[in-house]
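Recall from the previous lesson that a structure prediction takes nothing but the amino acid sequence as input. Here we apply that procedure to histidine kinase from Megalodesulfovibrio gigas. The sequence below is the only information supplied.
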Amino acid sequence: MHAQPRQTILIVDDVETNLDTLVETLGDEYDVSVVMDGPSALQFVQSQPPDLILLDILMPDMDGYEVCRLLKADPATADIPIIFLTALTELEDKISGFTLGAVDYITKPFEFLEVKARVGTHLKLKQALERLERQNLELQAAARLHEDMERITHHDLKGPLNAILSFPEVIRESGYLNEEQRDFLRAIEQSGVRMLDIINLSLSLYKMEMGTYELKPDALDLLRALRKVARELNSLCEAKNIHLECLLEGRLVGPRDELYVMGDSLLCSSMLSNLLKNAIEHSPVGATVQVALHRSRVCEVRICNQGETSPEIRERFFEKYVTYGKAGGTGLGTYSARLLARAMCGDLELDASVPGETTVVARLPLPAVTAP
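The prediction returns the following tokens.
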């Protein structure tokens, strides 16, 4: 087993007795080097950068302030901690040193225990910062690997999915299909398109978590997206005898109604799908899930279902992996829905103020009104 290499210290002072005292104090624990002027210190550091520098302020030709300024101006030496050695006690002198980048002061005449304590503290801090930097680099590398794997997975999944999307049309053109069989083919096509959307969305969600997603907003019909999601969730509604009710400004939405918001069609549909699916799954059999839309400064979408959210998760309702009372639940639906809403410059909030009900409120930006 190899012994840990000793940390290195450079002492810069033009008084030999000071150097002797500091070497005697620190030499048992660290590898100590000494120089007696500023130019020699700069030359030494370039060839053998130490872990820490003890730097006298008052020296002829080039004082400690100038040495510190030059070291901090060079990226190769800027991170080396510098502790000033000084007989100066004025506050202005200390502020000057800290402004230049020094981490601490040791006042002459030296107290042995103080010197050891201050040097030891800053060397431990330097080690901790270096570990943190290494961990940060490892996390960045892991994030890049994760994104690369996502891209590879997307590419590999799209190949067989293209076959799923193209074969129904080939089968349809062959003829001899009854209406039920045609419905099955349409369901396969719709499921394939939905799968393709999910594959495309997964990388976007990862970028949203990393803060690197770039939205390209466009005006989209929110009611059209809502109708599409309702069709996709129809079988889930039928299984629980759930009725979906959609209101616009307090009245039932008609087949020709439109409501435009700014966002992305895929993100908006996925957000609505997650929220409606969550509302349906947490509703009692035979209940009504209401979607109420209102325009003011923004578009407000209130999705309300019967069934009260447990008080113990209300504050964490949109956090990752938070779930309650749902077998096999991942706690990712509402989390991803909020990511999607915020990516479109909107947001989500939970309204649990009415006993026995849960309401999720989504707010999305409206298109800018063009002056006539």
